[in-house]
Design goal:
The structure is a homotetramer of 354-residue chains. In chain A, helix 2 runs parallel beside helix 10, helix 5 (191-197) crosses helix 6 and helix 9 (280-289) runs parallel beside helix 10 (316-332). In chain A, a hairpin with a 2-residue loop joins strand 5 and strand 6. In chain A, the strands form three sheets. In chain A, strands 7-8-9-10-11-12-13-14 form an eight-stranded parallel beta barrel, surrounded by six helices. A four-stranded antiparallel sheet of chain A has the order 2-3-1-4, covered by helices on one side. With 354 residues, the first copy, chain A, is α/β, with parallel strands linked by helices. Chain A is 33% helix and 17% strand. The radius of gyration of chain A is 23 Å and the shape is elongated. Chains in contact: A-B, A-C, A-D, B-C, B-D, C-D.
């Protein structure tokens, strides 16, 4: 890292910083400019967090040189990581589509949705049993009953199941049913929960927080990987901006950026990113064209009667049309959609936009 | 609420919306303009969340008329709520200062800090035993050992204890030691945790999320109150903005606004809001001048060696000077600082900026 | 519009609002709920701005029902508008690519760039003669000399010219050379300048402000159209968010949204939106897949020696590869790239994400 | 500045960067770490902008060490700058209040407002003759007629006049009437206009852009100073955030921060910052408690009939009460309000929050 001393820092203040760095095991290097003295320090980036150098007198700012994450970085693992859920490979060049209702509402609703999305080509069924709602008066999910229905839908369709885990205490229950554990956007920095899912032998779909930077998102992935679970799938789902016509602003650029900075697979959730079904197909195309490894799409047999997120849910017919579009864009990216594997190499190159 | 139909909505679409509203128990009212048909609906605001009207065809937008929160609103409870922690009253006109280190690091550090902040006039000791850190490689807190040290400091000084609870599973442990349970900014929408603290008989200090609106913040308070715990203290701690010289942007205006919209006490944490100790005293003065019921200030015996947040921690000397300033501003607001009660009435009036 | 009265509004206060509305020519309609009285007002939306109803006592909030823009709305003009610059049609189904250096630096640099982008399939040459720079010490552009070089490049290549006008006083000069006048992002709400370009018989490329909402952007277009110039091309170029790895966050979703709300053509500038050349091709593909009518791309013969925006400029080789990608995605959208026209109908349908 | 090379940068790439820096007149310094090679470069910060080093292959990022502004920095001018408008000193320890209507509407309205604010203790009259409005259909100001009325009000009351200049072409006209030229928030980065006001012998009140960082704001001041006009008054008027209950979020922390980074006087406009008159007095107190050198307050004889910004305008009665509050807070800061000078020293110390 680099420490910039303030223009009136005394020799003693500089000395104190040097000594502190050396005592912490950093190799230091002094460079005295006309207006500023600068100290370069080489050592274990992970120790930086606890040093509080900026609190030392005479220090103007501390500039980290390396990214704070290691295990999640492409430098650490140059090839693309492929995360598997049973026979479904995410990040292996083939595009996987996860689809289904926002919440599990009933046996009929879920099974109908499951058959419909499978028909259209989805390989993974989404559906919330535990729902984070901004109002305590809103439907909070069917909880365990919802998990049972998801398992039944898996039996009936062969689809894998991705569902959200909201809390460490209910993790064992959710993990007993899910094929992929979803960490919701609001929990991206729930470090307790991140540490817990790190101990479970299941892939984790980590949603980006509504106002998290890419670095903070990768640091959340680092928590899970540092805890021992390297099967992390990143999911861009829109960030909060001033634009209020859409629910969030889908950061499609995050796809090629994350593929460049990290080796983890990246999927996109245009339904939450936009909040209006009408614009979901266009952005599904855009996400795949930008190099996404998959999509997470809300589909409901009857959006107008959905207990949550109806406005952003596609009808089965619109979803089928979306899948047609996605197949055409995927082909253009030399990628397929669904189960079959393809050579990831070119896909990867495309991902960095070359 | 008001439903605005799109300019080309058909009579049948309007009919469908009216029927849906009536079936849900709303009293409806139709008003047909030249360019738009508008439906007014009167009924239980708390049912709005689950209706998904925006998903019905022909609906352009749904405009809620009432705030989504009830128990937290001043309309529901016109007088100021006073939350007590033992003999300390927060929101009763008297200004209470909570101070101490970011994290409990050691017996010596904590006891020294406790005596110093008590000396200067603080009535409540802050200190983290469980620390949410953005890096898995940073100091994560002393956990139970830290709680024991907080209890020892309470014994030694008579200060009350506020400390963060990060997870439902460790809640019983934290609640066994704390006088006030802190919900951190990143957990403001951890609804599982909110529901849990709602069941505990302890005051809850609810920090505003880094990019939460005031309405979302009050909805989080509503979660706790709806669950049965009305002893909520709101804490403004800075929101994320484009300004990067400061750690966050302290939204001081939120103080008079929340005092106007809600009856709950509001305190301000300038240390996290700014991230640089140098500017904390000026903003502590500003917060009290704007009508805050208290302050949360980071103080460390030796900031340069703090294991976290050193750069924003005041030395005991600077904290004592800050308390002098705060007393002078409080006096001007007809308020005192610390234990003794004063007539809240004028304080309240001042709070709404009159 | 709808006026929501506060829950304790008096009959006299309601009366006053009704009278004010009627005197301003609105047809009013009263609806008294249990907790709130609501007034619906039907009339000329454009008079709303000056009424200041929210300042009347007893008024809680005013909710506009209609968008504040008229001429720019699709309701006003259902078909897609096609803006022509000579024989180049923008918005007519065919995708047009505008490319060239950030700034005109020299005769050699500009002519080389012009030939290279024409070679690759661009139809319009971009290049700044007047440069808005955040530092007064940075290169401010060649001004009139730069305009002369642009004209020479047009002669030499047959490309049309788009260049920025920064100020009403230099408008006649710029208009004498440019085929398309560019309003920069920082000037999107420079209303003086908007009123001036409204009087010129040239197409205007209106960049979205870095933190403008879509509605504010369309209101800026409304200024130009209300002044008599309906040849407006909208350009999404990234909005400011917390993400700092990229220069801005490219709001690709704005493309289908604006195509839905407005009849004006929309193009995308991924170079400024991202700020790093490496990710520009992926986002150019995404923009076209989302339905953009064109692209604005920075290309420099030698980015490492560019006097501005080198980091986001493509080399001619990378630009040629990007154009290949763009042609493939355009074909998939049933659109072509460059001069020849195609049936706009399907293109339009695709644009709204169907 | 510091150049961080990517971890796989070749020796030749490092060499090329070194040569480029040396040729541009920088003294360079190489430091080779385990994972990264870092280059320190010492030289004229103002040349940095045009180098485009980040476009050179092998460069990961460029980190500036010094602030990009010079003339506006406190390092360049350690003492507080006092800007005078006739016999009124801004920044000299004494707090100056500028007040009046958003727009000049009529002779009666302006003269009435002028007498009322003077009565209450304001020394400078605000009022817009040229109005930047987001809608082309809103009142755009009385233009020259408005300037004449401002001059008449100055005659009648002895107040100085501050009014906005929107465009270089109308600058001579506005400058002929105004005592202080206001640059509106939306024009903060209208560099053409900044260069023009730099040539006029009048103080300039520079409003912070709605989403400008403090550094960008000081760079705008640098434009004016670099052009020869050092009489710049900075005005914080609220920044755009996600909070939508208030019009903007008033960044009160910017006051002590700017006083620390720069020598220029800083005033605060809570009326635009908040947008609701009810909260203006509380925030006026907060601004002065934080160290502001003055206030800009909207006052209208009849806010409910104001042609613009009625909802945020105070009645003369509320303004008089606000001035009482301000005097009390100012006294506590050892400052006075209005004409008479006091020793700036302690005021200055208070400003940096000591």
């Amino acid at each position: 890292m680099i420490i910039v001393m303030s223009h009136n820092a005394s020799a003693r203040e500089v000395e104190a910083v040097l000594k502190r760095l050396e005592n912490t095991g950093f190799k230091v290097h002094l460079s005295e400019g006309v207006e500023r003295t600068i100290i370069g320090a080489i050592g274990d980036r992970t120790r930086l967090g606890d040093m509080g150098l900026e609190a030392m007198s005479g220090v103007e700012k501390v500039v980290p040189v390396l990214q704070p994450y290691k295990l999640a970085s492409r430098a650490f693992h140059p090839g693309d990581t492929v995360v598997t859920a049973g026979n479904i490979a995410i990040g292996g060049g083939q595009i996987q589509v996860m689809a289904g209702p926002c919440a599990v509402e009933s046996r009929e609703q879920l099974l109908e949705a499951a058959h419909q999305v499978r028909e259209a080509g989805a390989t993974i069924l989404r559906g919330g049993a535990f729902k984070p709602r901004t109002s305590p008066y809103s439907f909070q999910g069917l909880e365990e009953k919802g998990l049972e229905l998801l398992a039944e839908a898996r039996e009936a369709t062969g689809l894998k199941i991705v569902t959200e885990v909201m809390d460490a205490r209910t993790l064992p229950l959710v993990a007993a049913y899910a094929d992929i554990l979803q960490i919701g956007a609001r929990n991206m920095q729930n470090f307790f929960l991140l540490r817990e899912v790190a101990t479970v032998d299941k892939p984790v779909l980590l949603k980006r927080g509504p106002s998290a930077t890419i670095e903070e998102w990768l640091m959340a992935a680092e928590y899970i990987m540092a805890g021992g679970n390297h099967r992390v799938i990143l999911c861009e789902r829109g960030i909060r901006t001033f634009e209020n016509y859409t629910r969030n602003t889908l950061d499609v650029t995050a796809v090629p950026v994350v593929k460049y900075l990290s080796h983890l697979p990246v999927i996109v959730d245009p339904s939450h990113g936009i909040g209006k079904w009408r614009f979901v197909p266009a952005m599904a195309r855009a996400a795949v064209a930008a190099g996404a490894d998959g999509l997470l799409i809300e589909v409901h047999p009857d959006p107008a009667h959905a207990l949550c997120d109806g406005p952003q849910s596609l009808t089965p017919e619109n979803f089928a049309a979306l899948m047609e579009d996605v197949r055409r864009v995927a082909a253009l990216m030399d990628r397929g959609v669904g189960r079959r594997e393809v050579c990831g190499a070119r896909g990867e190159n495309r991902n960095v936009g070359g």
